[in-house]
């Protein structure tokens, strides 16, 4: 693994020199992309720089975070009175002594975060990053002049570009499976430790993972809930609610011969009338 890391370090430093990237002033987080209209450049739009394809989820997350923090600390603000962008690093550095140490600790935390990439950082690259923040600290100790120079010397931006170049070469090597030494031409196979966790390399390559989709053809049977209490393996049957008596809504039938409902009328015997007539 050490051999592969050293080769990636050589290729990263060679890439920065070949591309002639101004690691001190070029924005590591945002880039301007031309917008074409009718075959001609109509305007430029600012967007986030893409993550190199082939990186693991961990490496992609760290690179994006380092880029964003370096931009905020070195180029986050602009002013009409100052023809150059500045960030929180320059503002905090205005505080005598304490501000310089606080700026150094923030930059050191950025390096610690960058060293958590899969397989770690090469020692030479780590030393270059640490040298950048030490120079920034030394410049900040110079009264007045150091505060002005701190705006122009952007240690965090330099370190972000170093990490970007290293991870770009690492992504290419991971896709190829091997890495070639630019000086000797020897080919070394990429170790598994640099690839991150298994199944984690398709995060930035545009591949979407698909999980198992449950079948929707037959819905699962739903067991009705019981209000009884369960004791061991026996379940008490729920008590049934009392049933209300059914009322008879049919109106009572009127009795024969008239009268009030529910009252019986006994017909008179005609002999009773004869007895009364004899007495008269």
Automatic annotation (TrEMBL):
Pfam family, any one: DUF4112
Location of region: Disordered: 210-280
Membrane-crossing segments per the record: 75-98, 125-145
Keyword Transmembrane: yes
Keywords noted in UniProt: Membrane, Transmembrane, Transmembrane helix
Superkingdom, taxonomy of origin: Eukaryota
Transmembrane helix as UniProt keyword: yes
Composition bias, Basic and acidic residues: 266-280
InterPro entries in alphabetical order: DUF4112 (IPR025187)
Protein name: Ph domain-containing protein
UniProt source species: Podospora pseudocomata
